[in-house]
Structure formats: C-alpha cells, structure tokens
Design goal:
Length: 373
C-alpha cells in the first residue's frame, strides 16, 4: 500500500475511534470515503424472512451496510405473470417486511432479476424459457441430462433473444412489478457471463454486431427504468476485453461485447467483480465516465486490498473521475440460509477453499469500520 493511502486509512480509523469515544459514528465521513457499502445475496426463502430480518438488524446495519441487492429472479409471487413464479415464492407481505427493515436502517434495497443471460442453469431452463421457449436465443442447443463444462455446444447458461418482438413486454412487466413492491429507485439486471448472443442460427440476430446487440439491450432496459426515474445496475464483465487484458471469458468478454462500453448510457452503474486478483478495472470504467463498485466474494485479504484501491482511486483521481468510484459490495453466491449458517458458525464450507463469503464479509467490513489495522 502506498504511504498516502495508508495515511488516509489511518485517518479514517482515527475518526472512527474519536467518534466511538463520543458515542456516535462519523457516518458522513464514511459516506464521503465509500459512498456505497453494499451486500449482494439471494433473496431469502419465505420461511427464512424472519431470520434474515434479524441478520439485517443485528449484522448488516451495525456494520454500516447502506445498499442491499437481493437476487429475486422468479422467487416472487408475481401477479402480472403468475406462470413465471417459482413453487414457493416470496409474497408481497414478505417483501414489505424487508422494505420496512431496510428503510428503518437507511439501507437502499435493490432487487435483481437476471436479464439477457443466465436463463438456464446446468440442465434446467429458468422460468422464462421454460414458459416461453420461443424467447430462447439458441433453441437448437438442447439441455443435457448430465451437465459438464466444457461441452461441445459451449453451453454455460442460455440467453433470451434481445430482438424477439415479445420478450420485453413480458420481462418489463416483471421488472415494473418487482420494483414497485420493493419501493425502489434502482434495479439490478445482472447481464453477466452472456456467452450466447448474436448467434448465426438466430433468425433475428444473425450477422449483427454483438457489441451493438449488448449495448442495445442495456439501453432498452435503462430507458424503460428511466420512465419511472429508476437507475440500472449491471455486472461489468461483458464490458471488458478478456483477450487483451488476459482476464479471460468469465470475468471479461471473448465474444466482442466489450466495445459496448462506448455505446451504453453513462448513468448505468457497473458492479465490477474480480475474485482472484485486485484488477484495476475500476479505473477503466471511471475513465469512461461510468460509476463503478468493486465486488469481492470469498478471499478476505484480497477484499481488503480492493477496498484500499477503491479509497486510493477516489482520493487520488481528478475531481471529474473521483465521483465515479462509488465503493464496495460483498457478493454471496449461495442462498441466504446457507450464508447465515456459515456466518454464525453452524456449518463449514470446504468447497470454497481457504476463504468463504462470510469470512470475506467480516474482514471487509471490519476494515471499513476501522476495527482492524
């Protein structure tokens, strides 16, 4: 860590100590250093809502988390399209409890429904393509009984066709409903790891520029949300050149969608995830005039490095770029119940290697709140 960044972090810690001695946290100072202090997790199952609310009150709020993204997808009892709801969905009453708890704790609550990509998983279609198979970008790719990667079809997750004339009516009715029930001013559309796009055998997309297709879908979603003064958030991997950077096909794009970064509206918020290195891509997004949030997962030491980078970028950049470095967001890629079990020591997850999402969350927010040096 450079001396200037180290001194800045020490200054933050000193303010925290002084504020604690006076019986209050210097929240405005923390807001100026890391405006977004986020947490992203799958929405709890209906029977886990009380437990998750307790977690919100006792763990997220005291750590000064101010942004919560809940991955809802089809786990809500939609009235606009009940055929797309999962078997045991959240009800409006469940969501209202979450909304009230977040409001009480000054936490911005943002729902996520995966759009464009992630319309299947392993050998199963998601609800959208299950109910509306005509929306499938690659209907000729059959889901296997036993999924393996790599495979002959390069199948990771299916996508819907962004040019299908009926797809946006359906998905936007879902988006509007979930945004209304969450009483939110923002929506996360996912849009990560889109491998199927502009396929040669698609009668609508064949021959079209994949970057233009991706940018067009981002813009279409953004423009729809803007009608209700809502902000669009997405994951950032499809906007990075995976070959030139060496970041690969998961954290970045191999199918030329990266050029879309110069075609999308500048008010889209990018959640920039890197789980193995502290890649400096936030600078790339900020230089393009786009707000960016760094997103760790399961490596505690790495998350702290990424946080220090974010503080440094925000402090040392020009005034034009400073405000684009928005902060940090812990990501969790398990369900809420599993995470809480791990967080409270009720389970161990050896599959995640030397670190876990709950270890990472604890380390990151300990440093954010000045509890560790």
């Amino acid at each position: 860590m450079k001396i200037s960044t180290c001194l800045f972090v020490c200054f933050l810690l000193l303010l925290h100590i002084v504020a604690n001695a006076q019986g209050a946290i210097a929240k405005p100072v923390l807001d100026s250093i890391l405006p977004v202090r986020g947490f992203c997790i799958a929405a709890p199952a209906p029977d886990q809502v009380p437990r998750f609310i307790k977690f919100l009150n006792e763990e997220l709020a005291p750590r000064k988390v101010n942004t919560l993204i809940l991955r809802v997808d089809y786990n809500y009892a939609y009235t606009s399209h009940p055929e797309l709801s999962s078997r045991h969905p959240l009800t409006k009453s469940d969501v209202q409890q979450l909304v009230n708890t977040c409001r009480k704790n000054n936490i911005r609550l943002i729902p996520q429904v995966n759009l464009l990509g992630h319309q299947s998983w392993a050998g199963t279609n998601g609800k959208l393509l299950e109910v509306y198979p005509a929306f499938d970008e690659t209907p000729y790719v059959k889901l296997p009984e036993k999924y393996v990667w790599p495979n002959a079809d390069s199948l990771y997750c299916k996508s819907y066709c962004p040019l299908h004339p009926g797809v946006h009516k359906v998905v936007f009715e879902l988006v509007d409903e979930i945004c209304n029930v969450f009483e939110t001013d923002a929506f996360h559309a996912g849009m990560d790891e889109v491998f199927y796009l502009g396929e040669d055998r698609c009668p609508r997309c064949s021959g079209k520029d994949k970057a233009e297709l991706f940018a067009g879908e981002v813009s279409t979603i953004r423009n729809h949300l803007a009608l209700q003064n809502r902000e669009l958030w997405i994951w950032g991997d499809r906007l990075i050149d995976g070959k030139t950077t060496g970041l690969g096909m998961w954290e970045a794009s191999y199918n030329d969608t990266y050029r879309a970064i110069d075609m999308i509206p500048k008010d889209v918020v990018v959640c920039d995830w890197h789980y193995e290195r502290a890649d400096k891509t936030p600078v790339y997004f900020a230089m393009k005039g786009i707000d960016v949030i760094t997103c760790p997962w399961r490596e505690p030491a790495l998350a702290v490095v990424q946080m220090n980078d974010m503080i440094h970028f925000r402090k040392e950049s020009t005034k034009e770029m400073q405000e684009h470095f928005k902060g940090m967001m812990q990501t969790v890629w398990s369900d809420a119940d599993d995470f809480m079990d791990g967080f409270y020591g009720l389970k161990k997850d050896n599959k995640e290697g030397t670190g876990t999402a709950w270890d990472c969350f604890k380390a990151l927010y300990s440093r954010i709140n000045g509890e560790e040096k």
